[in-house]
Amino acid sequence: MTPVPMTTSVPTVNIPEASNHRFWDRENSFLFATSAAFSTADFVITRNNLRNGGQELNPVTRLFAGSTAGLAVNFAGESVGVVGLSYFLHKTGHHKLERAVSMLNIGSSAAAVTFDLARR
After folding, report:
1. Spans in the chain with pLDDT lower than 50
2. Which element (helix H / strand E) includes 22?
């Protein structure tokens, strides 16, 4: 009796075209630009409100609110963090979450800008 060699077959995974996209595609570029624009608006309005005696309500941003440079570092870091987290999610195949990070940041910055403008 001759032993039969065992063969291992590796299943193929069909990745849909929509999830196999380049990181800097049109949609991500638009989302990152929009996120950066809202972060910039949030920075400008927050800085003006703080100069006019306002108070920072975000406890994390409050740590940097003592100076314009500190505030700029906070908002720039926020933008870099959005791109970095999105890239990590892209590389790990979580393409819906990759785009959701930018959308969440856009929503929170838009809400902050709206709140700050309403409180002027």
Report:
1. 15-17
2. none
